[in-house]
Design a protein that fits this description.
130 residues; alpha+beta; HIT family, subunit A; 2 helices; 5 strands; globular; binds zinc ion
Length: 130
């Protein structure tokens, strides 16, 4: 079966370089994924230099997300159990969001109205940190 992260389609691309791409995920307002261009399974498959670049990208994205969305918390996760291609989830969390205090990968507990989000401005802000 082809890897869905190697076969790029219908992604809302924010930024791309030779190591990774940054996309907006529509499942949760403001949710971002950083995906390596290479099909590698684990973080330790990166060279040291690549690991530093990817880590800084996640840090910068988180900082912009905090500034722009002002969430109660940000969750960073690299699971890859379903899709074993290295990708980092960066997810804004709110104390009344549907999963709080659990992970967004769990079942929803409640409904929640997310704060309004200017998607174009948000994407520009995220892009500006690279
Ligand atoms: Zn892949």
């Amino acid at each position: 079966m082809p890897c869905p992260l190697c076969e790029i389609k219908n992604e809302d691309l924010i930024y791309k370089n030779d190591l990774f791409r940054v996309i907006l995920v529509d499942e949760i307002p403001g949710y971002i994924r950083v995906i390596t261009n290479k099909h590698i399974k684990e973080f330790s498959d990166l060279s040291d230099e690549e690991a530093v670049k990817l880590t800084l990208a996640v840090k910068k994205t988180e900082k912009k997300m905090l500034e722009f969305l002002n969430p109660d918390k940000i969750n960073i996760a690299a699971l890859g159990n379903m899709v074993p291609h290295l990708h980092i989830h960066i997810i804004p969390r709110y104390k009344n969001d549907p999963w709080w205090p659990g992970a967004t990968f769990c079942d929803k507990k409640r409904d929640f109205n997310y704060p309004p989000l200017n998607i174009q401005k948000y994407k520009e802000e995220i892009r500006s940190c690279f």
